[in-house]
Amino acid sequence: YFVLDFEAGILQYFVNEQSKHQKPRGVLSLSGAIVSLSDEAPHMLVVYSANGEMFKLRAADAKEKQFWVTQLRACAKYHMEMNSKMMNQVEGQQKNLVHAIESLPGSGPLTALDQDLLLLKATSAATLSCLGECLNLLQQSVHQAGQPSQKPGASENILGWHGPKSHSTEQLKNGTLGSLPSASANITWAILPNSTEDEQTSQPEPEPNSGSELVLSEDEKSDNEDKEETELGVMEDQRSIILHLISQLKLGMDLTKVVLPTFILEKRSLLEMYADFMAHPDLLLAITAGATPEERVICFVEYYLTAFHEGRKGALAKKPYNPIIGETFHCSWEVPKDRVKPKRTAPRSPAGCHEHPMADDPSKSYKLRFVAEQVSHHPPISCFYCECKEKRLCVNTHVWTKSKFMGMSVGVSMIGEGVLRLLEHGEEYVFTLPSAYARSILTIPWVELGGKVSINCAKTGYSATVIFHTKPFYGGKVHRVTAEVKHNPTNTIVCKAHGEWNGTLEFTYSNGETKVIDTTTLPVYPKKIRPLEKQGPMESRNLWREVTRYLQLGDIDAATEQKRHLEEKQRVEERKRENLRTPWKPKYFIQEGDGWVYFNPLWKAH
């Protein structure tokens, strides 16, 4: 039961008419709100508030619906105009403040050049400018939403906001969102607590921890998937959709509650993206060949700093598929034994060498195996395990990804840790991962890494701190990284590094020697993966194959429908499990304390 309080400018709802004198169940501020018709149900209308919240109302008939639309829009307009008057008053007060400061004497205990007063003057001007810009955006969005649709038959069930007519950017194309190719599949962007992209569930439960082998590796073949994402940036009509999405988000909002448009997807699962951390397996395997603990920790830092650039397919920021609980990804690499040497004595790679030929004789190669699995979806936790039996080396990692809206950026925290074990030396290196940021999401989105990560080996007393520097607002370089390796018992710095994580890195050692690694010329070893026809139904590429196929064809509608079908199927399985009170049991990983561990790790094998 809805009540419109015109004077207060709020829309309230109650359980029923009898309870309208009690505390309302929900309240929506109408200043700057947009009222839109909807064909989702008969006589339905939707109210989008300026802060991103949304109410859906249903009238008894067409006449009542029109009455409510008229009243709601009048209320929104009235309070918007009141806000404009208030802004004029604030502007007048700010001018008086500036005049008072500038009228102060040029000398004495308090002058017009007092640092605090100058700061107050600048801050008040910036605040006023920001508030004015916000009000201007809201007024334009209300005006544009009220315009009749430019195209016949365009759906009204999506808010027709085309974004601000900014003086600094070219005006966006006119045309309603309902007419865009992917719009019909993305009408659930308003923040609905029960409609989350991550609300994915399981296939029928697999046999827990069945089979000690990861997969039949003899079936694996060199991967020939496209390396690059070809899109140049956000298309003009897609920008309208993203603007609509942004208009509903609040700063700091958890993006797991948002269904993102399909056209920003990367054509692969996040589980597969983690495998790209191993794209230079020769550097990883070389760690255990280091002669001393100092050399081994430095080798690990060298490997770590080169591990991120291959995970980005080109400069464009795109989002991998959110893995579904129970989803797995398997692959392996073969590394010629003559390529695995301690990095400080290894021969230089020829410039421009990107692909290294595989050794024909398996006995002349080390085999590195990789398995990843989505073990939870609330929170979304991915695990991956990688091992080389011959080198007695393995990595076990669990990562919880947490996305956050930051205005024109999206931040993704990688919560969790990994452990590199060198069994030959009895050493364990515990490491964390940086956060990732998608910047400039309305133009050409790009990725940068940020944050401080640590690498620690308790046995040897060596540790490293790696800082991924985000670009300053004005000037400054992008993709900067610095690192420092320390021997804690003696408080000695044994190595420093600086450069770009996707470019050139320079290392300086305690003996004064320096070395440069150019990540763009390092040999990339293609992963080996089984063909689709030999993959199980829950393996990443097989699971997402139809979504990927339609994205490759450019058919966004069909890709969205396939994705929706896949996720709905998972929800049904989740509800079944909830009804039976059967907890999900992962296939390859076991929970231990706060972390997850591979069920048959190298350190437990006899």
TrEMBL record:
<dbReference type="GO" id="GO:0015485">
    <property type="term" value="F:cholesterol binding"/>
</dbReference>
<keyword id="KW-0175">Coiled coil</keyword>
<dbReference type="InterPro" id="IPR018494">
    <property type="entry name" value="Oxysterol-bd_CS"/>
</dbReference>
<dbReference type="Pfam" id="PF01237">
    <property type="entry name" value="Oxysterol_BP"/>
</dbReference>
<dbReference type="GO" id="GO:0005829">
    <property type="term" value="C:cytosol"/>
</dbReference>
<feature type="region of interest" description="Disordered">
    <location>
        <begin position="146"/>
        <end position="177"/>
    </location>
</feature>
<feature type="compositionally biased region" description="Acidic residues">
    <location>
        <begin position="216"/>
        <end position="231"/>
    </location>
</feature>
<feature type="domain" description="PH">
    <location>
        <begin position="1"/>
        <end position="77"/>
    </location>
</feature>
<dbReference type="InterPro" id="IPR001849">
    <property type="entry name" value="PH_domain"/>
</dbReference>
<keyword id="KW-0445">Lipid transport</keyword>
<dbReference type="InterPro" id="IPR011993">
    <property type="entry name" value="PH-like_dom_sf"/>
</dbReference>
<dbReference type="GO" id="GO:0006629">
    <property type="term" value="P:lipid metabolic process"/>
</dbReference>
<dbReference type="GO" id="GO:0016020">
    <property type="term" value="C:membrane"/>
</dbReference>
<keyword id="KW-0963">Cytoplasm</keyword>
<keyword id="KW-0446">Lipid-binding</keyword>
<keyword id="KW-0488">Methylation</keyword>
<keyword id="KW-0443">Lipid metabolism</keyword>
<feature type="region of interest" description="Disordered">
    <location>
        <begin position="196"/>
        <end position="233"/>
    </location>
</feature>
<comment type="subunit">
    <text>Interacts with OSBPL9. Interacts with DIAPH1.</text>
</comment>
<protein>
    <recommendedName>
        <fullName>Oxysterol-binding protein</fullName>
    </recommendedName>
</protein>
<keyword id="KW-0597">Phosphoprotein</keyword>
<comment type="function">
    <text>Probable lipid transporter involved in lipid countertransport between the endoplasmic reticulum and the plasma membrane. Its ability to bind phosphatidylserine, suggests that it specifically exchanges phosphatidylserine with phosphatidylinositol 4-phosphate (PI4P), delivering phosphatidylserine to the plasma membrane in exchange for PI4P. Plays a role in negative regulation of lipid biosynthesis. Negatively regulates APOB secretion from hepatocytes. Binds cholesterol and acidic phospholipids. Also binds 25-hydroxycholesterol. Binds phosphatidylserine.</text>
</comment>
<dbReference type="GO" id="GO:0005856">
    <property type="term" value="C:cytoskeleton"/>
</dbReference>
<keyword id="KW-0813">Transport</keyword>
<dbReference type="InterPro" id="IPR041680">
    <property type="entry name" value="PH_8"/>
</dbReference>
<feature type="compositionally biased region" description="Polar residues">
    <location>
        <begin position="201"/>
        <end position="212"/>
    </location>
</feature>
<dbReference type="InterPro" id="IPR000648">
    <property type="entry name" value="Oxysterol-bd"/>
</dbReference>
<keyword id="KW-0444">Lipid biosynthesis</keyword>
<dbReference type="GO" id="GO:0006869">
    <property type="term" value="P:lipid transport"/>
</dbReference>
<dbReference type="InterPro" id="IPR037239">
    <property type="entry name" value="OSBP_sf"/>
</dbReference>
<dbReference type="Pfam" id="PF15409">
    <property type="entry name" value="PH_8"/>
</dbReference>
<keyword id="KW-0206">Cytoskeleton</keyword>
<comment type="similarity">
    <text>Belongs to the OSBP family.</text>
</comment>
<feature type="region of interest" description="Disordered">
    <location>
        <begin position="340"/>
        <end position="361"/>
    </location>
</feature>
